Amino acid sequence: MGHARAMAVLPRTDGAAAPPSPAGQGSGASVYGMELGIPLGGCRVLIADDSVFNRKTLTRFLQWAGITQVAFASTAEEVMERLESFAPDLLLLDTAMPRMDGIAVCRSLRGDPRWRDLPILMQSTLNSDQMRTVCFSAGATDLIAKPINPGECIARVRYHLERRSMVQELRAFRERVERDLRQARAMQLALVPEPAELAALADRHGLTVDSVFRASDEIGGDFWTAFEFDGTRVGVFAADLSGHGIAAAINAFRLHTLLTRTPPEELRDPARLLRQLNLRLGEILPLGQFATAFYGVIDRADDSLLYAAAAAPSPIVASGHRFRRLDAAGLFLGAFRDSAYTNHRVPLRRGDTLFLYSDGLSEALDADGAMLGEDGLLQLARQAAADAPDRPLPALMARHAAAHGERLHDDVTALWITRR
Amino acid sequence: MDFSVREAPASTEIVLSGRMTFADHDTFRDVIATFERPAGHRMVFDLSRLDFVDSSGLGMFIIARDTAQRRNLDFAIRGARNEVRRLITIAKFHTMFNIDD
Fold this sequence. Notes:
Chain A is built from 12 helices and 18 strands. Chain A is an alpha+beta fold. In chain A, a hairpin with a 2-residue loop joins strand 14 (316-319) and strand 15 (322-325). The interface between A and B is medium-sized, with 25 and 19 residues. Chain A: This is Fused response regulator/phosphatase.
């Protein structure tokens, strides 16, 4: 031991060593005319080898590859210490040294999550297939046979460093996108009514509202909202933007913005609201993108639901033991100019339920690839209401998950609204 | 989704099959490429082998309709069955498309 300086940062132009490259080319430009790809000047390599000769040789080869940040270790403890203090991008590890079992070091590094991805190149004089297999089983990324050939050594080091750099870049990109999506998801969740506000609104209007709102990816194109515009009427709007992911979510925000800017008098008439939204959305959305939507006004004064729809999944109205689907046919919002919509009025008395859902729920596939369908969902709703009359929606979602899995391929909105 | 093209002198029939979803944008670009026809030519989507279409797929029908209108082609869809038929019915496509059943 007794290395005063474990880390040697070598100058780029070390006159003592020249790579076996065509005359006249600078250090690190090429070895045997090999393309040297991305610069490796920023990379750090730890050499675990106790032979001074080997260290010098390897250091020289690395320098030809443009790598000047090199540190050394000759015991397992030193390897651990240098990994922490030097943070290498690659470890060149000798399999057998008097004071260190390289195979054991490699195996223990792979057991530590911090070093699981570190490229470890093992060098060995024993080049039997058995020895190579032992190295790979211990977690070696690659092997270099001794005596070491500069061309092969540089090519392998370079390959693993480049690969590591690409993986790190991808990981950083992925982490950034995940962070952005998490933030976007929080924003999307904020589009739907806040639970306490919703509960207060429901109380004021003698309603019980249970809801599920989930995106298949981090974000998606579903949203719903509810608002009151006088003492007896509550509006419920649910929409599903075509497509998936970010584009659908951006369109959901656009539609939400249009809706919140709509003057209250336009909210009283569902067909009129959809007509207006169709016009405005049509000006914004690219061709082929659209929304399906349901808008209903629950009116306590005359025990009715007045609604209009734009190709929404058929809402279900339950009255006692009778469950029936409402007609929700209509042209997509934002797809065709001058689309007109129709108002429908159906009874919705005390004790009756309105169940709204997105197609993510009705189009879910079971393990055999069979689609639930709207009939299947109606049966599920009926069973859930019988099983758990006080809170049917969680029972419905549990039955749904049992047959169709928790992880759905589409966004899911489900709203179970009962007049108390 | 897969598609095949059947040519006749004054019409082109495109048979769509399988599941038509978000993942088929590239395939659909090839479908739209077949719309390079003289004005008045008839383009027909045969949906009889289509098992499922999602919202992105329905959006592709809208793009096809628009492409046909811009090129003065006669565009129709026909043969939708089961789930596909249900979806184009609730989307009231009969008011916007020629449905040739």
